[in-house]
Specification:
It holds the Pfam family DUF2849. This is DUF2849 domain-containing protein. This protein has about 100 residues and is α+β, with helices and mostly antiparallel strands. It contains two helices and five strands, in the order βββαββα.
């Protein structure tokens, strides 16, 4: 599976493409796509977000299942979903929005 992520332009926040094409801040709300379909979804989402000057650095990333819960496959994306690894009082993990 894959998810789509970006950085929101107005504040730099990491966002994820959710159901219905809306952008969400929580990875738990991100839409997951089969690998074969992810690029087909990415192209129009990227074009729209860039045209509307909503987000930049829009791309797909791998998602794996861990204990029955989808999580980003790489450490980079895990950090982007949760926040800094050196201070747990900062980032999304401090607000209870942790990825998984």
């Amino acid at each position: 599976m894959k998810a789509i992520t970006a950085n929101r332009l107005r504040d730099g926040e990491v966002v994820f493409l959710g159901e219905g094409g809306r952008w969400v801040e929580s990875f738990a709300e991100a839409a997951l796509f089969p690998r074969a379909e992810a690029d087909d979804v990415l192209a129009p989402a990227k074009e729209k977000a860039e045209r509307e000057q909503f987000a930049v650095d829009i791309y797909t990333f791998e998602v794996v299942e861990q204990d029955g819960v989808p999580v980003p496959a790489t450490m980079r994306e895990r950090i982007r979903t949760a926040g800094p690894t050196v201070r747990l009082d900062l980032g999304k993990q401090s607000l209870g929005k942790q990825a998984a």
